[in-house]
Write a structure and sequence with these properties.
Length: 208
């Protein structure tokens, strides 16, 4: 299962792609973008040899859910692909809109086991940004959902009742483990530099 973000075009525009993918054994579903020109759409592609797409539906702006039956598995998996809305692209009220994206995705995942994947664009800890900028409303919402606790942010109590958890390492935040930076800052001809480690996968604790 693969999600593609920042897709430009309508359902009609992607018909040639749908036919091409079908010939190669893939199913696809497009949630068109809601801005002018159908920008920022979300596309999901499923390999029919490994899984079957039961249904796909809009969760929120730039957030798409798909229910998939994997070969050999007795239970379906719900996966939500999300492209976090950020002010870096000029979006207004970005943090509040991301919180809505996140809570809508969490509501989908609560009844069943599932994954939240994508370009989340926010972090649960100040140490995950090279700048160590303070967490904003959107960061804190991600932190709450995943039960994230760390000494960097003066909160190590943990939350065993959290609805989800981050998949992957802790970016060296609470252990000696190291994680590569996933965000690269570029500016003109300046040499690109590491800027942040943004999480890309969240696992729901429900149904496990």
């Amino acid at each position: 299962v693969a999600f593609i973000f920042e897709v430009l075009g309508s359902i009609i525009d992607v018909r040639p792609l749908r036919r091409r993918l079908a010939k190669q054994g893939y199913s696809m579903y497009l949630q068109p973008g809601e801005s002018v020109g159908r920008r920022d759409g979300v596309l999901v592609i499923v390999d029919n040899k490994r899984a079957r797409m039961r249904k796909a539906w809009r969760v929120a702006e730039r957030a798409l859910a798909v229910q998939v039956a994997f070969r050999g598995e007795t239970r379906d998996e719900t996966i939500v692909g999300i492209h976090g809305i950020t002010s870096a692209t000029g979006a207004v009220r970005a943090a509040k809109r991301f919180v809505h994206q996140l809570t809508s995705a969490a509501d989908v995942l609560k009844p069943e086991r599932g994954l939240l994947v994508g370009d989340i664009n926010y972090v649960p800890c100040v140490g995950w940004r090279r700048s160590s900028a303070a967490l904003n409303e959107a960061d804190r919402a991600l932190r709450t959902l995943t039960g994230w606790r760390c000494g960097c942010c003066a909160d190590t109590s943990g939350d065993d009742a959290a609805d989800a958890y981050l998949v992957g390492g802790d970016a060296g935040c609470m252990t000696s483990e190291t994680e590569g930076w996933t965000r690269i800052a570029t500016s003109g001809r300046a040499r690109p530099s590491d800027s942040a480690r943004a999480p890309s996968t969240v696992r729901s604790t429900h149904g496990l």
